[in-house]
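Risk register update: the risk of archive-format incompatibility is retired. Evidence:
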Amino acid sequence: MASLTIASKANQATTLPALLIAENAKNSDPNAKIDINFQDVETLQNAEKSGLGLEISENSSMYSPRQVIRELLRLFAFWQGKNEDLILEWIDRVGGFAPTDFKSVESPLLELDSHLMLRSYVVGYTVTPADFAVWGAIRGNKVAYAAVKKGAMLNVTRWFKFVEETSPWLALAVQSLNAHAQERKAAKSKEGASYDIALPDTEKGVVTRFPPEPSWVARSLSKDRRIRTNANTGAICTLATPKRHV
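Archived output:
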């Protein structure tokens, strides 16, 4: 069984396309066997420091987004056939939608907008992996997605909404990826604030106090008098109720 691993903290413009291709394979072919896992990291521990990893066997793994998507298309042959070369051409262009600054992503978006002027799909007359991959790259890029939502490129906006409406499972796949990030934030929130501020030269300890003049910060914190000690440095922070001066 193939195993796709995704770094949930990575740029989603590089990871979401592969996730959508894998999810579509599972939805379209009952015999498609692929395991999808998420890791709470920015990059996976591999030579290429990528946010993706596809393991086919113990001796066969790949990490480049382009290679991962191409291999997924090869593994699930029901995609192969008509317009295959054109589909692969657009798969290779997906990386152009990954930059998170508008100047870099504007040109690929304009090219796509021109391409879609008289088309309902990126390739051919039905939805293909090219649509899912390009849609995923744009949806995973906050800058590109914002431009599409504003209608800056009319043809891209029309196509984007059409693909989303005719393939409702796309929203579920996006939610599954975002859910891991939300769970991580919720877990950190429960842990509370961190008092490890890594102060230098604190071998003998450090005492920090608020000045006598109360402020909204001091008043807020002084309601809960606490003493915090850094286990690594021995730094001590004392939060004391400030005295009022008449």
